[in-house]
């Protein structure tokens, strides 16, 4: 088992989202892999953040591998959850069963696991946290 596939997976997920017409239609270029700095006036109304990840061994007797559980979160200051749900749906369409090419390793499967929509308080943005599972093995 190795964490060596993690950066390649994040790069591929980012490329898939920023290159998908459905995601672009809802989010434009508001897809990030780090919390947004700066004042609230500079933060897009709706954006996606590639976030947390958990990795466990996915090796077999003959091949090194890892199972990654990663999150992509959608945040919106828009009224209601509709905008966030549209963005989350576009992200799922772009990633679920996606055929992403990794710089390191080979993506065997990428699938949607779950989603959670919430809002902590009236002053915080609405959020949808999407969880995906990626199974990666060493490339031949």
From TrEMBL:
Gene3D superfamilies named in the record: 3.30.2000.30
Superkingdom, taxonomy of origin: Bacteria
InterPro entries the record matches: Gp17-like (IPR021508), Viral_Tail_Comp_sf (IPR053745)
A Pfam family: Tail_completion_gp17
Protein name in the entry: DUF3168 domain-containing protein
């Amino acid at each position: 088992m190795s964490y060596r596939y993690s950066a390649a997976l994040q790069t591929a997920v980012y490329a898939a989202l920023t290159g998908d017409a459905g995601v672009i239609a809802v989010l434009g270029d508001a897809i990030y892999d780090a919390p947004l700095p700066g004042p609230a006036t500079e933060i897009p109304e709706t954006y996606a953040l590639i976030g947390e990840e958990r990795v466990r061994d996915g090796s077999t007797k003959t091949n090194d591998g890892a199972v990654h559980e990663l999150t992509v979160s959608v945040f919106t200051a828009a009224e209601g959850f509709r905008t966030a749900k549209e963005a989350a749906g576009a992200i799922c369409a772009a990633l679920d069963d996606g055929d992403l090419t990794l710089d390191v390793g080979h993506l065997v499967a990428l699938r949607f696991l779950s989603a959670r929509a919430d809002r902590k308080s009236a002053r915080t943005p609405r959020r949808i946290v999407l969880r995906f599972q990626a199974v990666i093995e060493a490339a031949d």
